[in-house]
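Section handout 9: paired folding examples.
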Amino acid sequence: MKLLVKLFTVVILFALLGAVVGGLATQKSYVLLAVGNTTMETSLWFAVAVIFSFLIVFGGGGLALFKGLNTSKKFLNWREARRRQSAAAQTKDGFLQLAQGSWGKAEELLRASFRNDEDALLGYFGAARAANEQGKNDERDAYLKRAKELNPTAALAIDTSRASMQLDRGQYPQAVQTLSEISGKDGRHPFVLLLMQRAYLGTNDWSSLRQLMPLLRQFKVLDEDSLNRLEKDCYIELMTAVGHDRKEDEDAMPYVNDLLRLSEEAPASLHRSASVLCAYARALLALGEADRAANLLSAEMPAVWSDEAATLYGQIKSTESAKQLVQAENWLAGRENNEALLLTLGRLALSGGLPEKAKEYLEQSLSVRKSAEVYTELGKVYSAMGNDKAGNEAFISGLELA
């Protein structure tokens, strides 16, 4: 039905056109063209034919050109779609290879996917990871640098990825440098803080880690127990470092003052830590402050009790060894069978010139548990008493246990 309507319409149009053309052809009419001083006269029919021919030629040519351009555009769009599909497939295959641990193949596929602008960032990330797993640090950094240039809004994700990969490769100083370039609010992002904590641990930068602790707590980067352990380790390491920093310097007071200041700055919870207390006392001993170390342990124990601290107390050679012995004996109440305390009492008694008393404490310690350390001290006691045979037997027993 539609075809008949179209056919009828065409017939009517041609009939009307024929009527008009026929009418014009029987008229004695002409067309006069004037351009400046130049005129041209022609018949109306010839002018109509020229105009009609012009419309056919140029109209048809324009239509052909339009269709050609449209066809070319469709071809370009088709080719671009094919390119994107190919790159997307390579991205997918590359990540599959990455998941399977085929680092070289994954890098090759993902590098080829860079031509897909939509997935280029993913491709650069994946290629960087593959290069990192192969130890190709320069290639990894080049991929991430290019990704950052193409996607400046993804700077945080790219920088944290670089730092994470550097940490995985043990490049702790490089990770610190990468993370230090992250500024503003991004510098306080929990993941950035977590990576910074790992980097400082890797470089043993306990001072920077201590300064980072407030932010780690504020943003709850780690659970409370982990934060407490980390903070305790910071102060132990820093106190130990102060004790070692003196080296050959004759004047120990600047180091002692640094140690005292560090102790004052420590959180109150750490003042009840036996391991921190021992680190503090050992640092004082390393700085030649035996009396300070003995007084420190006397003041803090038994409130902060540990066998480690009790053993350390017996190793301190202060100018008041008799006072040390009395203090240690006060700790015996309720700890009569504490082998560490009995060993300390034996050592202090021997240092105070009381070998019989020392022998009594050491033998009591051996009755609790035999140890090479106690036998060694007992051998010293027997030697001090002039009983070399018993002393040698004790030393041999100690060696056998050791």
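Moving on to protein 2 of 2.
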Amino acid sequence: MLFSSIIFNINAQDAQRIELTNPSFEDFNRHSQPPRGWINCGMDDESPPDVQPGAFQVSKTAQDGFTYLGMVTRDNDTWERVGQRLSTPLIGGQCYQFSIHLTYSEDYFSLSRTTGKNEFFVKPVLLRIWGGNKYCDTRDLLGESELVKNPNWKEYQFKLKPKGDYKYIVLEAFYKTPTMFTYNGNLLVDNASDIVPVGNCDEEEWDEEIMVKTEEPENVEPETPPVTNVAPPKKEDEKIPEPEEVIKPSINPDPPTKSNKIIEELSIDKVKEGQSIRIEKLDFLADDYTILENMHPVLDEIYSFLKENDNVIIEIGGHTNRRPSVQYCDWLSQNRAWSVRKYLLLKGIDKERISYKGYGKSQPIDTTNTPQGEKRNQRVEIKILSLGG
């Protein structure tokens, strides 16, 4: 027993500050390839993590430097992780302090392996930290965060106490635990600290000279679409649009004039709070939510209205006819509302000024017994939430 105690004390004294390779995850922006210094530790036949921003509609600014790591969980029970060999091994029984900045993207649009459709990957997930003795070895779970629900970057702190000596570390995006069902979510990771040895993991206070403890992340619910895992069955001849194909904004639109205006009611001296206005000449293809080029004029008209009246807050609402199932209608109307909102965001409108919702077939405005009535029911509307007065 005395011999073991002596060995432990020697090991603890030998513990060193460990610097990670590329802790800010800097690299060229690209999808399906982890940042330099990190290797993909994900599942076989699945795409690797990404260097963000820029892929899958992710546009959040980095917390440190220019780029950061993006990882997802999927609805087919697969998830992403990265790893690297440490410059100095973790010592078993030694306590370490470690911090890393985490958030999620409110917009993340990618292909679901289960539905075969592009879906929202916006449910909150958590970060797990593993130690091991080879690349991608998840031998010892060293730390696990709470669900990352904060829409802005927050510093998460961990006390790591490895059970053995480990030369490798793995960062992993994972579902809420315990996991009742798998789902599509995303996690953004940036600005990791050194791994710093400290005296005692049971001590309540942290060494402020090594690392300043920050407040816990706010318990903010993410901007989650009302329906996340519902999609129509895939048709064999159906082309699944890539994320970058769904939204292609126009460039430098001409402001609308009185003679070419499409939505006559869309004028600051005509609109009222609570008013809903149908977006004319916004005709999606059947079973689709892609923004086509012929939709640009009316969407640019909405953009010009919002740009000129920067206190106005709106909701984009999607509606369908009554023929498909409730789940299908909810899915399609939500995706169409999302596409319109995303178009306006990409043009430069602040995301805080535009919300979106899919109402499905719950709010018809005309008869459901004629083709003409059903065509009117299938629509996208602007609802004026606030004029900022």
